[in-house]
Amino acid sequence: MGKYIIAGNWKMNKLPSETYDYVKEVAEATKGAACEVVCCTPFVNLSEAVKAAEGTHVKIGAENLHFEDSGAYTGEVSADMLCDLKVDYVIIGHSERRQYFAETDETVNLKAKKALEKGLIPIICVGESLDQREAGVTMELITGQIKKAFDGISKTDAAKVVVAYEPIWAIGTGKTATAEQAEEVCAGIRNVLTELYDDSCAAEITIQYGGSMNAKNAAELLAKENIDGGLIGGASLKSADFAVIVAAAK
Ligand code: 13P
To answer: How many domains are there within the chain?
Structure first.
């Protein structure tokens, strides 16, 4: 389906001073990768990460951005700032940002539109909580998240977006969704995108799975028809583990 992309989400881990060597390590460990390899790092690590990735196949992403161009937004980082650093990707609407930093479907949409306007590739995260899964409202919730995230985005721009399906109950818990559960929701997301745009646009969009993906379970998840990659937290912090996941994405 979409282009295979394995992206590491470092979250609030690794120091700026550790970043150059670690990105070089990732580049070396994933040499010859058959998929796109991305490291998403904290803002303050980005310039070292970009420097280390230069001349390699590794691409660099940020973990958030602000939707305004500039101005009095203390503590925030704009799309232009990320572009100026030569960052290619940006994670938007991660469940940790929705949960702890008041990210909403509306700000996710504004951020996605700003990222696309400036030429950054948004990785838009969606996913349900355990309560929502148990209440049987998973697909209803995710359909709403996708529709709101893509509101006002043209077909040409939509085809550039990466969607990451991350069930909240699987993040950092060691409790992975089964390959069947992940495929069911990723296929559901592809259907919603077909409804919003058309078949060929939906087929072009990369849909990743994220949530305790690791060196052991990656191959089974990535073999599914509608899973075009992974957004990897914990296992992206060890280059050997990350490289096994990258190698599984063929
Ligand atoms: P873990 O791989 O640590 O579960 O994190 C997943 C995630 O949130 C990636 O964005």
So the answer is: 1
